[in-house]
């Protein structure tokens, strides 16, 4: 058995080496970097330099507030929408189901730059279709890019558009794994469709919904593309800057790797903490 | 309690007809088993009675009222599913009471019904468990309990024991039989297992390819099957079928020659139909109806291939030309593999079928 294991590990060595160099080491290294002052030459060990700055940095709190705001509003809306979409997709009355499934999933495979450009055009103040539609129903135009609230709303709309279908497909798989005869038993018990949804479907979908929520929380904590490309680097005036964007700005524009690493670890820590709280809140009773 | 009447019931899926005009009368309080091979339409028929499938033609009446357009929940039936269909996220107690709670049934009445069902099925101690914490037999009890709390006029069982192991199946069979006696309600039970059908039913409905082949009491079907299909389906091990030709007929009998057994001849008394000389027929003999050499009307030499010893009896799978016969032997007359021996057929203990499978009496 030991010889067999040794042979297996010899074959695994190339992978393990690559994994250690490009995966494990950067994780350890970035953690160590977060305890160094990296804007001096050479870098010096200063345990409280970056973490101390983080605690008192208004830019960090602004990014944290924006990220959490998106998390608290967008994720529940998107998951609810995804559940509705999944239920509609699962309906036996729906024709051309494959087409809808593709349409819902398509945003995920569209290039980020392309979709961001399209969103910028659609929400443009003067010639965007959204403002034209608002105008046509008698509402005033909205300057989506110059005011913080519309800009945040735009980010949430874009992220929801992009990921709701993806989550809907995962939830659809969960829906299809619920045996039909459970619903038949409920029908014989004179339980209405609406009650079946709330008392059978939703509880049985809970593990899948929690899975989608965890993925979405992690994704939102890392949110970068939309505020970078659609609202132009977290504009207006940092109003849509997220932790991901702050990390980028510190690490790759100010080349302050130590502080960027501290932000990165804060993001990861928050994602883990929120996920753990959520898993605890939605745990199965013993 | 209620009688169930099926009149010319037809079921089509698109252009494909799966039930071809079934006519079945089930008396109030009767235990009727629908039995047949996979795809014969027995579950479809049950689901039509339940209201889970639309009826393409004919009428289904429960308690004298035609139910074709009545919602499943309003038919006064309860169904036990093959997969139990328990709500996995609910405790046993919640599973039992779910339907009643959702319909605003008074709490005291719900508790009374749940308690009664739990007592009948002896699941009182399992009430706070979830389905995944139960064994197969316990889940089945809960599924039956959920049906009991509805206090239905008719119980429908869709292959309820097929997911259980052999021992548990026997145990649950007895429980269901006891339950029928205790509740005294009409029960319709679907199975592909003829042993279940024989042991449980007051009457059996044998189905094949969407047609009702025969309806009757278990022993009537066993002793007096209407055709070769019923003869072969009812009884375990199966009836043996021996190819034969009619060589002579008279006003009261036909003399047949067993094709694969060296021209052995048997005089088979008949009362109604007389096949033509030369007609191909099939002689049916149950394994326990092979007698010792010389005891019957026609002897056949065979060679034991495999012997299954079950204690009180053994089943010998014997080769006789191209036909394999299953012969039941008493323990004292066991045969070992490779033994040559002779079996004897009695005319009155055999059945005659024409080439198409219809019984010749």
Automatic annotation (TrEMBL), chain A:
It is a multi-pass membrane protein. Residues 64-278 form the ABC transmembrane type-1 domain. Coiled coil: none annotated. Pfam families: BPD_transp_1. Keywords: Cell membrane, Membrane, Transmembrane, Transmembrane helix, Transport. The chain crosses the membrane at residues 12-35, 68-90, 102-124, 144-164, 197-218, 257-281. The keyword Ion transport does not apply. GO terms for biological process: transmembrane transport. It is found in: Cell membrane. CDD domains: TM_PBP2. GO terms for cellular component: plasma membrane. InterPro entries: ABC_transporter_permease (IPR051393), MetI-like (IPR000515), MetI-like_sf (IPR035906). Gene3D superfamilies: MetI-like (1.10.3720.10). Belongs to the binding-protein-dependent transport system permease family. This is Sugar ABC transporter permease. The lineage of its organism: Bacteria, Pseudomonadati, Pseudomonadota, Alphaproteobacteria, Hyphomicrobiales.
From TrEMBL, chain B:
The keyword Cell membrane applies. GO terms for cellular component: ATP-binding cassette (ABC) transporter complex, substrate-binding subunit-containing; maltose transport complex. The keyword Glycosyltransferase does not apply. Residues 4-234 form the ABC transporter domain. One of its GO terms (molecular function) is ATP binding. Keywords: ATP-binding, Cell inner membrane, Cell membrane, Membrane, Nucleotide-binding, Transport. CDD domains: ABC_MalK_N. Pfam families: ABC_tran, OB_MalK. InterPro entries: AAA+_ATPase, ABC_transporter-like_ATP-bd, ABC_transporter-like_CS, ABC_transpr_MalK-like, ABC_transpr_MalK/UgpC-like, Mo/tungstate-bd_C_term_dom, NA-bd_OB-fold, OB_MalK-like. It is a peripheral membrane protein. Belongs to the ABC transporter superfamily. This is Sugar ABC transporter ATP-binding protein. The lineage of its organism: Bacteria, Pseudomonadati, Pseudomonadota, Alphaproteobacteria, Hyphomicrobiales.
